[in-house]
Design brief:
The protein is 39% helix and 17% strand. By secondary structure, it is α/β, with parallel strands linked by helices. It has one domain: TIM Barrel, CATH 3.20.20.390. It binds SN-glycerol-1-phosphate.
Length: 246
């Protein structure tokens, strides 16, 4: 099923499911909390996974009616099971495989689901401590505080035709992307802005939305504390009602 993501119409919450940490019990728990809270999307994927992502997506779709977007950590995770695919180009880095090489290999596999492919400019931001994305991609993140570089990179992504920009602090980041960088990028972009990494409290989610994030992504925090997703969705709802605080 193709999904239309209603971004820029209202704020959205996505919950990241890492297939390697998504056994049956974890999936049932995630689906129950997410359905009750009204999560907008699941993202499924991870830096390294030994579990077929298609199986996890199929099970998630049995357990809830929340659309599932493939968030592929690498080519082995490509599957037609998802409602949409984020085709990520790591535009903060200078690794040609992650800018175009993998996309060439993926294109014949994605050909029949091209109407479900969403090109996303993926930007890794230094948020303190090394991250899996940094190591696995062998790329340098944009330094924290270098808002001008982040803005120029995001603008380049928009002008290259990306349909969204993702500011990624890295899964389990000690600190989320700084609100001043989110604001600086949001002020220049006309396409949706996704923010993720280290958003493990409702207050951090609120800060990201207040700075201009259109969609927040939370993963680790929900694995450790499933009720986080309830708080994140309440914050989203308060923004969507026009209130700025929970
Ligand atoms: C990672 O942005 C996502 O790609 C989510 O990060 O696991 O830290 O919430 P967390």
């Amino acid at each position: 099923m193709k999904v239309e993501i209603p971004w820029r119409k209202r704020k959205l919450v996505a919950q990241l499911i890492d297939p390697d940490r998504a056994g049956e019990e974890a999936l049932v728990t995630a689906a129950r909390y997410a359905s009750e809270a009204g999560v907008d999307l699941f993202l499924a994927g991870g830096s390294l996974t030994g579990v077929p992502v298609g199986d996890v997506i199929r099970r998630l779709k049995q357990l809830s009616s929340i659309p599932v977007v493939l968030f592929p950590g690498n080519l082995t995770q490509l599957t037609a099971e998802a409602d949409a695919v984020f085709l990520l180009s790591l535009i903060s880095g200078r690794n040609p495989e992650l800018l175009i090489g993998n996309h060439v290999i993926a294109a014949p596999i994605l050909r029949d689901m091209r109407d479900r492919v969403i090109p996303v400019g993926y930007m890794l931001i230094a948020c303190g401590g090394g991250t899996s994305v940094e190591y696995m991609s062998q790329t340098l993140p944009i330094p924290s505080g270098k808002n001008d570089i982040a803005v120029a990179t995001a603008l380049a992504g928009e002008m290259l035709g990306m349909k969204a920009i993702y500011l990624e602090g890295g899964s389990g980041a000690a600190k989320p992307v700084d609100p001043s960088m989110i604001r600086a990028v949001r002020d220049e972009l006309t396409i949706p802005l996704i923010v993720g990494g280290g958003l493990d409290t409702p207050e951090k989610v609120e800060d990201a939305f207040a700075a201009g994030a259109d969609m927040v992504v939370t993963g680790n925090g929900c694995e450790q504390n499933p009720v986080l997703i309830t708080g994140a969705c309440r914050v989203r709802d308060s923004f969507n009602r026009g209130a700025v605080t929970v």
